[in-house]
Amino acid sequence: MAFVTAKIKIWGIVQGVGFRPFVAKLADKMDMRGEVMNMGGLVCMTVTGSPDKIDMFIEALKKEKPAPAEIIHIEKELIEFRGFSAFTISGSVEAESETAMIPADLSICQSCIREMDDKRNERYRHPFISCMECGPRYTIIDKLPYDRGNTSMADFKMCGFCAGQYLNRADRRYHAQTISCHECGPNIDMSLISLAASLIQGGKVVAVKGVGGYNLICDPFQDKAVSRLREVKHREQKPFAVMFLNASFAGQYCEINEVERCLLESSAKPILLLERKEKAPLHSAEFERSRFIGAFLPSTGLHRLLLEACGKPLIVTSANVSGLPMIKGDEEMLALAEGSKGLIAETLSHAREIRVAVDDSVVRVIDGKPQMIRRSKGYAPVPLFMGANFRNPEKNMASLACGGQLKSSFALNKGAFSYVSQYFGDLDSIENMRIYEENVERMKSLFGIEPRIVICDMHPLYDTTRFAEKYAAQNGCDLIKVQHHHAHVASVMAEHHLPGPVIGVSFDGTGYGADGKIWGGEFLICEGSGFKRDSHLKYVKMLGGDSSMKEAWKSAICHIIAYDGKEHETIADDEIIIDISDIIAAGGARENNNWDTVKRALDNGINAVESSSMGRLFDAVSSLLGICHENSYEGECAILLEDAAARALKRPGEDLTDDLALSFHLRVASMICERCVKIRDAKRLNKVALTGGVFQNKILMEKALELLRGEGFDVYYNISVSPNDGGIALGQSYIGFLSLA
């Protein structure tokens, strides 16, 4: 059979994961001749052989790829014959590609853990040990292609030992750009690690330079240490995440199933929300703040060494004042430490620079599957494939989706790929907004995406809306404004490649409605880039608008007044009321000293808005039952209400408050199912998308899934992006492209 030459282009996560060395080794095994190189953001190879053998080679590439790699698309093209004497790895070349992709940061792998624990190994106890399958990527890169010289590792010259492994095709560190050892660095004086561990054991707070930024670390079993940490971060109640040495240690404190264990040990090493065991080896008041523990495992050798030295789990949280950006710079960290008046006892740093701050991701398991709560380190900026359901007039049309105001992220989009950024938190501060804007420019440059369309929320006061308007005007881009809850539903459609129509159930705390009112308890019919509002929770007059997000007692009074008034006597076909009369009767909200003030303000229309928010209803019920009256952090009242419902599931009938909390959850789930059946009967739709921050409630979500599936619905929900506002940007992206059809 005659030999031919083929050019093979591969899109996906194929840089920084050992893909070129893998290709070379596979070629040697299959006796192929040719070359492979990085070309911009993709991998390009030229091979000569029989057509059948080339096809076999491509199939082997798909089946045997390195674990961290992801192949999204392959193109093969026959070109003019070229003769090769061997298979080589060629130097990277600059080239504009359709979709440049780089991997997220990869946590320390098991092979490296074994080496750092082996006294005979040259990298024994090396804090920055890495190989082709692990180590930082996105947080150290300056530009593509992903080569050492294009990262902050360029500051560290390889020693002879590392260089020998880097050039040895048979070695695990062949072409590993983050290769390092005790000699060539980066490094840390081991005595400083011992000092840091001693301070932590003594009840102090220590700052440590991690992969995506600095961490603040303390002992969760010492209340004074946790109090110091809360004072530094200005964080009063919200539970902290806890780092465990391995999954077995985490299992002493948390309930862990096999899916959760795999997530804990995955290369992303996310913070995983695990149900707390009632009995644990050591008591911690910090653990008892919630029925969940945010548990995660160390992603670097440095964190492992600290955990081993301390001999117990540790609180490891981002180094920042709550509401402000995570600190990545050495000078800024020193300034925070010096200004803490001794609350931060020591700062453990190193010479490798962090190019971009990326906080830890947060994940949970719902319905037996992983679901993103906060998409950041370990996942960003790996693009999401939105499918080919939209009829895009220009294959590579680029856009910028600006996301929402809270739990913000943006997305740069090119063709069918959406590069959803890391999490930036709420954009209420000048500092967070500055970081957001800087990262838009950084990602544009990194991926070579120049947006021609800008998509944003309809809310006129969102900082992202103002940014989008300014960006579009300055850059001559078309501007598309998308209704908030429509974007939520579209994020589910994008993930599951659904063109519609679907029944979108979008429940959250607040969103600017198409009628200028506050939405948040919505049933939408979504198809293509459009939507229709089918039905919603009946409007309730709320005092204070968005400020009511913090004051659940205010929501409680407003809902009582609504139930007492005539507005609940008649219900239109598109309005929904959930009966909470027994919950109102059980509570003491009418005795609130603010009752008369709130009543007069509502009667006179002072600072009053109409709201269909399900999130505010959850807050109201939490306050009515005396569980929580104010949100010291976002969602606190609803979280504690769910915790009460969970207690009733375990011990029904023991506590009236807990039983009513559970009953409320079941009422909402039943209402969802009943309304979807009604819509199906009228419109013959059987696909349902559940989304919005309220669906972070595990009890509500799983009960709604059970009831809907019992009625034969096909139910979809967010997986790769959060159901909260962190997923808004993906939904905006999808609507933006569908609008071009």
Describe the protein's architecture and organization:
With 741 residues, the chain is of the alpha/beta class. The chain folds into 4 domains: 86 residues, Alpha-Beta Plaits, CATH 3.30.70.100; 159 residues, DHBP synthase (Alpha-Beta Complex), CATH 3.90.870; 131 residues, Nucleotidyltransferase, domain 5 (2-Layer Sandwich), CATH 3.30.420.360; 217 residues, ATPase, nucleotide binding domain (Nucleotidyltransferase, domain 5, 2-Layer Sandwich). Helix content is 33%, strand content 21%. The protein is built from 21 helices and 28 strands. A 9-stranded mixed beta sheet has the order 12-6-7-11-8-10-9-13-14, sandwiched between helices. α20 links the parallel β27 and β28. α13 packs across α21, α14 packs across α17 and α19 packs across α20. The chain is globular. The mean pLDDT is 92.
Write the layout of secondary structure elements.
Elements: E1 4-13, H1 19-29, E2 33-39, E3 42-49, H2 51-64, E4 70-79, E5 87-89, H3 110-116, H4 160-166, H5 190-201, E6 205-209, E7 214-218, H6 223-233, E8 242-243, H7 247-250, H8 258-264, E9 271-275, E10 292-296, H9 301-310, E11 314-318, H10 330-339, E12 344-348, E13 362-366, E14 369-374, E15 384-385, E16 398-401, E17 411-414, E18 417-420, H11 430-447, E19 453-457, H12 463-475, E20 478-482, H13 484-495, E21 502-512, E22 518-527, E23 530-537, E24 540-543, H14 552-564, E25 575-576, H15 581-586, H16 595-603, E26 608-611, H17 614-624, H18 636-650, H19 656-683, E27 687-691, H20 698-710, E28 714-717, H21 728-738
Parallel strand pairs: 2-5, 6-12, 8-10, 9-13, 16-19, 19-20, 21-27, 23-25, 27-28
Antiparallel strand pairs: 1-3, 1-4, 2-3, 6-7, 7-11, 8-11, 9-10, 13-14, 15-18, 16-17, 17-18, 21-22, 22-23, 24-26
Helix pairs in contact: 5-9, 13-21, 14-16, 14-17, 17-18, 18-19, 19-20
